[in-house]
Amino acid sequence: MKVAMLGSRLGRMAFRSFSSKPKCVMLNAARLDFDGRMDWSKVTNVTEFTSYDISSTEEIVPRAQGMDIVMNKEFPIPGDIIRALPPSVKLIAEAGTGYNNIDLEACREKGIAICNVPEYTTEAMGDYAITLVMALSCSLAPQMKALAKGDRTYMHQCHLGHLDHFEIRGKTYGIIGGLGYIASNISKKALGLGMKVIVSDMPSTPLGMRDTGVEVVSFDDLLQQSDFISPMVPLNKHTVGLLNAECFDKMKPTAYVINTARGPIVDQAALIDALRKKKIAGAALDVFGEGSAPPPPLPDDSPLYDVFNEFENVILTPHIGWQRVEARQRVVDGCGDNIAKFTRGEAMNIDMNTGLPIR
After folding, report:
1. What pLDDT score does 98 carry?
2. What are the residue boundaries of the D-isomer specific 2-hydroxyacid dehydrogenase NAD-binding domain, all occurrences included (predicted)?
3. Stated pTM of the model
């Protein structure tokens, strides 16, 4: 894992040496260890560890009393809570890649360092994106939904009727936002399957070209050329509603949108309208909601839930792309490594001045 000194007054304030193991509290262990398969030894070896399966917002401050480190998985820690944390807390260890759930400005004010684990889910998310491509290309979900409804028409007729069924070799996969860890993994797998991969850089997301065989195009060209489109950008003020009605108007009617990043990156109302008007062929969504973490589900009255009728061409999953057992163990181990570095006075991998990972 790459680390770098923060170099600011905050950096000097945040680092401290420990004559004994620092005390660490995990606020929501069940978010990671819901099946009891995680090995926490990399954390317990370097801390006096207290763990709670779940915590409410009101319980954060009481449970942080006397602690040096607060560890959490996507749990929202707003500014008022951070400002109320005891002065003993010097590190928030985020057990994940995203950290928009933590108020960075409040951490700066309080002199609290933050670390994340940027690469833990790369393989799992790459696998999942390609899984969704394959499922969409052979209408897997609509066929299963038909059987679940008791409709055996296609079983009896031995053909797919109106459903799409095509090879992915030669199809174009468009990745919005450059080639970060996950996007780079997706592109390698797509290229290995004979797909063409194109990438559009966004102004707020520097392009990191580490792959060969990938073509850089304009944002509009990507929308117009792609058969599958994945936004792979962080959630911030520049990317909320990035895929909007204007974007859907530019896509091919045979295109599919795959969102495994953050829900608000795709304008949900515009997506529903595009699906209803058949401006695009379908979608696969693993994230929804307003961008909090963990992301909330769709509203109870969302028409997208009608996947058995109106939206049979839509795949919905409850933010499961990252949850493979190997990825979860990797993030636990990564937190342990981060904490060990912190206790030695080494810097973490979040630049508190910019709020960006140091890579």
Report:
1. 80
2. 159-321
3. 0.81
